[in-house]
Design brief:
42% helix; 13 strands; alpha+beta; DNA polymerase, domain 1; five-stranded antiparallel beta sheet; 377 residues; globular; Alpha-Beta Plaits; five-stranded mixed beta sheet; Dna Ligase, domain 1
Amino acid sequence: MDARRERSLATSRIIAHIDLDSFYASAEIRRNESLKNQPVIIGADPKEGKGRGVALTCNYIARRSGVRSGMPISQAWRLCPQAVFIRPDFEYYELLSMQVMQILRSKGGKFEQVSIDEAFVDLSSVLNSYSEVRGWVKNLKEGLAEKTGLTCSVGVAENKSSAKIATDLNKPDGLTVVEEGKVKEFLKPLPTRAISGVGVKTELLLSALGIKTIGELQQADENLLKKKLGKAGSWLWSVAQGQEREEVEEHEVRSLSAERTFGEDTSDWNEVESVLKDLSSELSSRASAAHLLFRKVGVKIRFQGFETHTRESTLPSLANDQGTLWKEALALLKRLRSRARKIRLVGLRVSGLERESVDQATMTAWLQEKNEGSRSR
């Protein structure tokens, strides 16, 4: 029997998780090579340490100075004043992302994009065994570098959750392969926060149960976890056992969202508004670049203590411009305003999406125009 047919009948799979390295910063370096060996921070204007807003992301050179995503831009400037600070160009990032995802789709196997810079590919029908993984990844990395100038980190395992964890262990431009049948052994020494979706609150709840590593999670009672965490408890247990079997499948985009966690909880609502305005710029640019129109707008606020509140409204007509989005987001924010509590996180979401048609040639032309426009500045 053909090896691929045998694999399709078995429970094991070959799932690759691909994550573009510091995507926004790398995209800027791609169109301005003079930035290559400099610290680059994408975000708000630092205004010599007095600016509002946050650092959206940075390259690995800036990270050596302690800069992190979501950090107040004033703090990022104090840590790395020599960095090149760049206001984000989300339309450019979305167009470049579309080019990358087309390359990934062309590599065969079931495909699923999960964010602007992240995707899964199920290679079970493409490769005969794990011995062929490194060759596939080498080919992918070379193709990405040649066509886009970008690098990526890749994790490969029998399921999506383990593949994503593997990716995070070896960045940038890394590869981590969890060999067939070795998932539980691979996961055992890692902290529970290595699992995507385990935030501070869940980590604290698990710690209170004496669970700090995935190995300890493997030994935990599933019923106890379900009692304490609901359905999430059963899901975490299955991830720890290496039993998660979620399919890789492409979904129609149902919503776009973005959020920022403040470096320190804040009671400054002017700062919250400033960040929300940045989020409205990001989402409107992403929607426009992807030729998506939205009908609904939602705002999320997470207060100190992880108490989270949301508000949503429906627009009278489809839109994707920042003016409409910002006006609606600000109105929703005012409904959530509270002087008594500090804010930990603010988020913005658009949904009820409808897609405008656009051909590949047009997309490529726009991307080329973005590149040339940047070089001429």
